[in-house]
């Protein structure tokens, strides 16, 4: 699935417009509270 999505985004010249996030890194279980989740997201970009 990831390869297909990459190919579609590449074909549409949208690779620099889309960012994918690993849900395990930003979930309540993975990060705890909303502040930690927000910091995790901002650190990944």
| Main beta-sheet annotation | none
Could you list the spans in which at least 5 consecutive residues all have pLDDT below 50?
none
Q: How much beta, percentage-wise?
A: under 5%
Choose one word for the global shape. elongated
| Alpha-beta classification | mainly alpha
Number of E-type strands: 0
The count of domains is: 1
Q: What string, H for helix and E for strand, traces the elements in order?
A: HHHH
Describe the structure.
This protein has 45 residues and is an all-alpha fold. It has one domain. It contains 4 helices and no strands. It has helices at 2-11, 23-26, 28-31, 34-43. It is elongated and about 35 Å long. 0% of the residues are buried.
Helices and strands in order:
Blueprint (H helix, E strand, L loop, with lengths): L1 H10 L11 H4 L1 H4 L2 H10 L2
Key terms for this structure?
4 helices, mainly alpha, single chain, 45 residues, 62% helix
Summarize the structure.
It contains four helices and no strands. It has helices at residues 2-11, 23-26, 28-31, 34-43.
């Amino acid at each position: 699935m990831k390869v297909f999505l990459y190919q579609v985004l590449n074909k549409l010249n949208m690779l620099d417009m889309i960012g994918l996030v690993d849900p395990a890194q930003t979930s309540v279980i993975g990060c705890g509270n909303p502040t930690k989740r927000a910091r995790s997201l901002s650190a990944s970009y």
